[in-house]
Design brief:
Blueprint: E1 2-9, H1 13-24, E2 30-32, E3 51-52, E4 62-63, H2 64-77, E5 81-83, E6 87-91, E7 97-101, E8 113-120, E9 124-126, H3 134-137, E10 142-143, H4 146-149, E11 159-163, H5 167-176, E12 182-186, H6 196-204, E13 208-211, E14 214-221, E15 229-236, E16 242-246, E17 249-252, E18 256-258, E19 289-291, H7 303-323
Parallel strand pairs: 1-2, 1-8, 2-5, 8-19, 10-17, 11-12, 11-17, 12-13
Antiparallel strand pairs: 3-4, 6-7, 7-8, 9-18, 14-15, 15-16
Helix pairs in contact: 1-2, 1-7, 5-6
Bound molecules: flavin-adenine dinucleotide (FAD).
Flavin-adenine dinucleotide binds near residues 14 and 15.
Length: about 325
């Protein structure tokens, strides 16, 4: 069993930003980047997208996977030990904290590593609906993030659809109305779950329509490889009637699943299973355990906000370790 001062679990912008700061502070961080943890490649959610156009420093945009490769290289450059394994069990009941990796996590297996401090940066996954055609047109018309993708040319002045009935769906629809010719929100039930104020704004928006009791049943489009979606089959849940509508964009706003199972029951989670952090910090309910990125952020969920919170987690961790007397002191000048 190996001991480290600090272990980072995760591999998105939050994890790598924390790693860069901690490595430069000579704390020798160890980062478990996961082996298809939660079904996502090491590098996190951005590995599932094409161009990222809103991450500062890349005026011409940057591929999501390329951006994460660069972040990983920067972590490694300063000495982060990156391990391509998934942490499958974590024991936070006593210090040092213990952790096990996949396939070696039975009751009789020794922990793979112990640590004085742990940063949870395991991210979240946008829920999908597994509609026929979804796999083919994912990122070729279908998106789970209007703020990320809404401005791209394929959606300009085109009919767009949003699925969902909550505040996020309302917010996304009104955001997309800046770009699309019209935005239709499909709501499975006969009412919106959104707050009254958001519902009122959405219903009054001149470029948005809400279709109640309606679900999408199939995404249809160009048959060519990387062809774009062009239509959506929708179904009235009351009458069962189906129709095919013009649709060049489909945005899911049906929620996210934060990857917090590892710490469930050990630190505080909110009702939607996001890790609760003390506002403005990365402190969780347990001393020595910090969280950053989408696993603790249900509001912004952007690469840059994850990176920012990774910096916060690193600085909070450094302070915590220095209070334990664990931070390397600057060498005396001769
Ligand atoms: C399709 C798509 C497009 C997007 N486009 C943009 C965009 O253009 N601009 C933007 O700012 N944001 C975009 N986002 C959002 C952005 O990707 C996220 O906000 C950001 O990646 C969250 O970073 P994170 O650090 O929380 O980690 P995540 O990116 O969520 O990654 C966490 C990763 O940690 C690893 N992990 C999880 N559990 C474990 C474990 N137990 N052990 C080891 N490793 C583990 C997994 O690989 C996991 O994917 C997009 C998201 C998606 C899905």
């Amino acid at each position: 069993m190996v001991h480290s001062k600090v272990v980072i679990i995760g591999s998105g912008p939050g994890a790598h930003t924390a790693a860069v700061y901690l490595a430069r502070a000579e704390l020798k961080p160890v980062l478990y980047e996961g082996m298809l943890a939660n079904g996502t490649a090491a590098g996190g959610q951005l590995t599932t997208t094409t161009d990222v156009e809103n991450f500062p420093g890349f005026p011409d945009g940057v591929g999501g996977a390329e951006l994460m490769d660069k972040m990983r290289a920067q972590s490694a450059r300063f000495g982060t030990e990156i391990i391509t394994e998934t942490i499958s069990r974590l024991d936070l009941s006593e210090k040092p904290f213990k952790m096990w990796t996949e396939w070696s996590d039975g009751p009789n297996d020794a922990p793979a590593r112990t640590a004085d401090a742990v940063i949870i940066a395991t991210g979240a996954n946008a829920r999908r609906l597994n509609l026929p055609g979804e796999e083919k047109y994912w990122q070729n018309g279908i998106s789970a993030c209007a703020v990320c993708d809404g401005a791209v040319p394929i959606f300009r002045n085109k009919p767009l659809y949003v699925i969902g009935g909550g505040d996020s769906a309302a917010e996304e629809a009104m955001f997309l109305a800046k770009y699309g010719s019209h935005v239709t929100v499909l709501v499975r039930r006969d009412k919106l779950r959104a707050s009254n104020i958001m519902a009122e704004r959405l219903l009054a928006h001149p470029k948005c329509t809400v279709r109640f009791n309606t679900v999408a049943t199939e995404v249809i489009g160009d048959a060519k490889p990387n062809g774009l979606m062009s239509h959506l089959r929708v179904k009235d849940t009351v009458t069962g009637a189906e129709e095919i509508v013009d649709a060049n964009g489909l945005f899911y706003a049906v929620g996210h699943d934060p990857a917090s199972a590892l710490v469930k029951g050990q630190i505080d989670l909110d009702e939607e299973q996001y890790i609760v952090t003390k506002p403005g910090t990365s402190y969780t309910s347990l001393e020595g355990v910090f969280a950053c990125g989408d696993v603790q952020d249900k509001r912004y969920r952007q690469a840059i906000t994850s990176a920012g919170s990774g910096c916060v987690a690193a600085l909070d961790t450094e302070k915590y370790l220095s209070e334990l007397g664990d931070v390397p002191q600057p060498k005396e000048k001769i």
